[in-house]
Write a structure and sequence with these properties.
The chain has 529 residues and is α/β, with parallel strands linked by helices. The chain folds into 3 domains: 2-83, Arginyl tRNA synthetase N-terminal domain (Gyrase A, domain 2), CATH 3.30.1360; 109-240 and 343-403, HUPs (Rossmann fold), CATH 3.40.50.620; 406-520, Isoleucyl-tRNA Synthetase, Domain 1, CATH 1.10.730.10. It is built from 20 helices and 14 strands. A 5-stranded parallel β-sheet has the order 6-5-4-10-11, with helices on both faces. The chain has a 3-stranded antiparallel β-sheet with strand order 1-3-2, with helices on one face. β4, α5 (125-143) and β5 form a beta-alpha-beta unit. α2 crosses α3 and α5 crosses α14. It is globular, with a radius of gyration of 28 Å. The relative contact order is 0.10. It binds one RNA strand of 75 nucleotides through α2, β9, α11, α16 and α18.
Length: 529
RNA sequence: GCCCCCAUAGCUUAAUGGAUAAAGCAACUGCCUUCUAAGCAGUUGAUCCAGGUUCGAUUCCUGGUGGGGGUACCA
């Protein structure tokens, strides 16, 4: 992480030589017309805080930093040129598997739970969005060094299982499906697999049968989507270990739970996070989903995670304060639990917005989408948007345009560089060590290399916002620079072995950045297209 | 009613409070005897409205307008 090292040095210099409070000094990518390698608006914001003249502050800062880089002070902006020796050093360091990782992050164990769709039907479009987000974030955090575990919660207890069983039984015996039941076509397919002797099964057995089929198909779709969960957690295992009752006891002990109208309530109205008291045990003696969910999250902490992240669709956002308040009541620090809300995907088909309702069985399944559009295009498409975007997904357009998905633009870089290396090998030009001391990078080479250098900033941005969408944006920009470079410069040049060696090293770094970036969003990097 | 999210080019979306707002699609003009034209170069084109904070606002605050979601002893 070389930029971070430079920033660290810069902070120390600023603080030591001039006593400027420099904790938040950082480099940014300058606009292209400036022609600098790195930029910072530090002087202007620091001047405000210190009550000094911005131009004077910039002058001081420029002086302080001139020992590590060439600095220009342009009307308060600081613009930097890296020394030429930076680049070979960077290329060498970048090859390390742990380039983005930092030791202090390795101590933090993060549990990230996502998708967790009800096991009562196939995964649909929204699950694709949640899966892309959660898995990509897990991959990015893991690249940064965190210990990350991906988890899927299977809600296999309760009334919905009963309804699922009744619905399957109805399908099996040719009876009408109950109004409150599940009407989707998929239960017809499952009914066809039910053995003859099921005529004597109790309804629960139908429920278990359907659920087993549905969960295993969900597992398969996730695998097809390049998402690998470390744990598929069954709600029933909570009850086997009596955890909801223990959670309830813990809340009672803290005097947070009380009885009213025959139900047991959690007193949250005063807590600040939530605004009203919530039921834990219904007057019939049955746990609410909330209590079981609290027990589940408490279990995550007791398994040794310091940080618990949930990814929910926006339709559940009203549940966030309750969950946070509940966990705080149990004594967990508020910052240890984070919920990421992603906005809902609405669907456009044949020019009309389609309402997605499970009961009506009227949705586009994720597996259908994957087989039509492909995992790579699908994941890139979902990941390139910020989770806050209210996406309208035009299914017809997505199918038609899958060839124009920017993912191919990025993947094509990898394929092209692979060809370059094949060509170099054929001409006996591979494996030559570049002599950096005698080579002067031209502007295009420098620009491309700098873009690779910036990658670490992109990852940190993703970490800060807990959003992976900066990665595909970055990759598209890097790909643009590469294709432009490719068009203008020949990499393999038998008449200039030195230039070839340098450019091959550069291409190696670009390919590595593309490969890593794509892998962080679960997309393949083909060698040939 | 109250709460949360959103509003950027014809369309779908980017942009730690910074410099000339960036891509893809669509439209138009050129470029394959060269390491893959799934590419390159170029043209047209945008910050919902009204205030405020700031040296500086697409970004922050207030109020509108329009859209999505939520407001269970459901899961």
């Amino acid at each position: 992480m070389l930029i971070r090292n430079l920033e660290e040095q810069a902070r120390k210099l600023l603080q030591k030589d001039f006593g400027i409070e420099a904790e938040n000094f950082s480099f940014t990518e300058p606009p292209p017309h400036i022609g600098a390698d790195l930029a910072s608006s530090f002087a202007m914001s620091a001047a405000k805080r210190a009550g000094k003249n911005p131009v004077e502050t910039a002058k001081l800062a420029a002086g302080a930093l001139s020992s590590i880089m060439d600095v220009q002070n342009t009307g308060g902006f600081l613009n930097f040129k890296l020394k030429d020796s930076f680049f070979p050093e960077f290329l060498d360091a970048f090859k390390s598997e742990k380039y983005f990782s930092s030791p202090e992050k390795e101590k933090t164990k993060i549990n990230i739970e996502f998708v967790s769709a009800n096991p009562t039907g196939p995964l649909h479009l929204a699950s694709g969005s949640g899966a892309s987000l959660g898995d990509s974030l897990a991959r990015i955090l893991s690249a940064l060094g965190y210990g990350v575990s991906r988890e899927y919660y299977i809600n296999n207890v309760g009334n919905q299982v009963r309804m699922l069983g009744l619905s399957l039984k109805a399908r099996f015996s040719g009876q009408p499906v109950p109004d409150e039941g599940y009407h989707g076509e998929y239960l017809k397919d499952i009914a066809a697999e039910v053995p003859e002797e099921a005529a004597s099964w109790p309804p629960e057995k139908f429920g278990a049968f359907a659920m087993e089929k549905i969960v295993s198909s969900q597992k398969k779709v996730m695998a097809d989507f390049n998402v690998d969960f470390d744990l598929w957690f069954e709600e029933s295992s909570l009850h086997e270990r009596n955890l909801p009752a223990k959670t309830l006891a813990a809340l009672k002990e803290k005097n947070m739970a009380y009885e009213k109208d025959g139900a047991i309530w959690l007193g949250l109205a005063e807590s600040g996070s939530d605004d009203k008291d919530r039921v834990l045990v219904k007057s019939g003696g049955i746990n609410t989903y909330f209590l079981n969910d609290l027990a589940y999250h408490a279990d995550k902490f007791s398994r040794g995670f310091n940080k618990v992240i949930d990814i929910w669709g926006a339709d559940h956002h009203g549940y966030v304060p309750r969950m946070k308040a509940g966990l705080e009541a149990l004594g967990y620090p508020p910052e240890a639990f984070t919920v990421i809300i992603h906005q809902l995907v609405s669907l456009k088909k044949g020019g009309e917005t389609v309402k997605m309702s499970k009961r009506a069985g009227e949705f586009v399944t994720l597996s259908e989408l994957i087989s039509e559009v492909g995992t790579d295009a699908c994941r890139f498409f979902f990941t390139i948007r910020s989770p806050k975007t209210h996406l309208v997904f035009d299914i017809d357009l997505a199918k038609k345009k899958s060839n124009e998905n920017p993912v191919f633009y990025v993947q094509y870089v990898h394929a092209r560089i692979n060809s370059i290396f094949e060509n170099a090998a054929q001409k006996g030009l591979s494996g030559i060590k570049p002599d950096w001391a005698s080579y002067r990078l031209n502007d295009d080479e420098r620009k491309l290399l700098l873009k690779v250098v910036y990658m670490e900033k992109v990852l940190l941005q993703c970490e800060k916002e807990l959003s992976p969408h900066h990665i595909p944006t970055y990759l598209t920009e890097l790909a643009g620079l590469f294709h432009s470079f490719y068009d203008r410069h020949k990499v393999v040049d038998e008449t200039n072995k030195q230039a070839s060696a340098v450019r091959l090293a550069l291409m190696g770094a670009v390919a590595l950045a593309i490969r890593r970036g794509l892998s962080m969003i679960g997309v393949s990097a083909p060698e040939r297209m």
